[in-house]
Every structure is written in C-alpha cells, then in structure tokens.
Amino acid sequence: xxxxxxxxxxxxxxxxxxxxxxxxxxxxxxxxxxxxxxxxxxxxxxxxxxxxxxxxxxxxxxxxxxxxxxxxxxxxxxxxxxxxxxxxxxxxxxxxxxxxxxxxxxxxxxxxxxxxxxxxxxxxxxxxxxxxxxxxxxxxxxxxxxxxxxxxxxxxxxxxxxxxxxxxxxxxxxxxxxxxxxxxxxxxxxxxxxxxxxxxxxxxxxxxxxxxxxxxxxxxxxxxxxxxxxxxxxxxxxxxxxxxxxxxxxxxxxxxxxxxxxxxxxxxxxxxxxxxxxxxxxxxxxxxxxxxxx
Length: 294
Prior knowledge:
Strand content: 15-25%
Number of strands: 12
Structural class: alpha/beta
CATH superfamily: NAD(P)-binding Rossmann-like Domain
Largest sheet: 6 strands, parallel
Shape: globular
C-alpha cells in the first residue's frame, strides 16, 4: 500500500492556490493564506509548518508543500525589495529546511529570473539574469531551496491567469465592456498559463521523483496584444478593438521582459504530462467565466 499524502498549500487565496484547493478537495489538505502563514516571519513559518509536518508524519502521511505564495507585485517590489526578499527569497529556504528528510517541497518560481533578451525559449540550465527586484528575489528563493539539497523541485512558470482573482484576462474582459478601444503592449512575448492547468501539473509533479528545476507553462506563445485579441474574440467582441502599442508607451517602475517563453523539454524528459496549448485553455477559462460566445 502506498503512503498517503498530506498536502499543504501556501498562498491559498491566490489564483494558483485557489485552483490547487479545488483540485485537492477531499484530500488530506491544509490551505494557508497570508493571515494564517506570514512568510515574512521566520519563527511563525517554522512553527506552523513544523507542527503540520509532525502531525502528518504521525498519521503515517507523506508531507508535501506546494508553495504557491509569493510577493507578486512586480512594480511595488522595486520600492519594497526587503519585504519581497523575505517572502520570495528567504521563506522558500525555511520551508525546504523544515521538510528536509521528512517531506517534499514544490516551489513555484518565475520567468522573471531571466533578462527577457533571448530569441529562443529559455532552458532550465540557461543562466539567470534578473532585471527586477521581483526577479532577483525569486532567484534567491530558487537558490535557497537548492542549498538545502533535499527532496524539492522548483517550477518556473509565466503569465498565469485564472477564472478568479485579479489577472490580465479578467482585466481585458472588464475593459472590453467599458471601452471602445483598448491599447495593449505588442512587443512582449510569453506563454499564457491557465492556473487550473498549472495546478494539475504541480500535483502530478509532487507525486513524481523529479527534482531540480523545471519549466511549466501552457504550450505556444503570443504577445499581450495577441492574448487580449483572443480574449475579445472568445467573448464575442471584435479583436480589432485591441490596439497594439510598444512597451515604451506604457512605462512601469519594473522592467518587463521582452521575451518570456520557457522551454518545457526538461518537464517532458521527467516523464510528466505536458501542459496543453494556451488557446484551448483560454477558451475553457472563458467558458468557466460564462462569457465565451466564440
């Protein structure tokens, strides 16, 4: 008989955390949001996770933490890097240490660890070169997990959206209803990734022996402008109402990568199920939102 799994989802109220909870409904699941687990507080993190770990082991279950928590306010992190460093950079190491020899950690990272200047998809062994506080702190988290050198895996993803929460797809749907025309950046390229697909991928990964660093996004690539056009079309609106603009026309405190496509070869090599293409997943999300009229 296989050992049952006890799951702990951090960042439980976020997009990915919400979909992980839905996927693991009925399982041995503990879901903690910011109120229950303050990732800036090392003592609390160690106490809460250590107690949960010990209780899981006492039940004969294997503890697995899915770390979906992060300081994701990319622009705010430029002015508040110390807080981002605690949440993104140091807390993953605390989690890895608390699980060392007694559980498994799946830690979610980001395409922002790269500089965005590539002309082909980033491989897992490409040298990181973050250009933002967010990227620097997420890279620090990757390295903190690797330093523990135990049963852990880092998963870089990108352009995540969901049928809930605050994200690009939902923003485009709102703007479609409010404005005749919507300008959207057309010179940044990436892979839109539906949180529900990513959640399924992470749960499969957690139950595999894979370690190290992997990339997981929906297959294919587009620009923010192309994604917005597909959202409009999927909602039965004219995609021509989405106007292409340059990144320079929409300045932000944090640098945005021009190219964020991640190579999924290592994911497939680990025997894991590739995520589907981004277009059908977007249509499924729009259907879940009740707006798809394509």
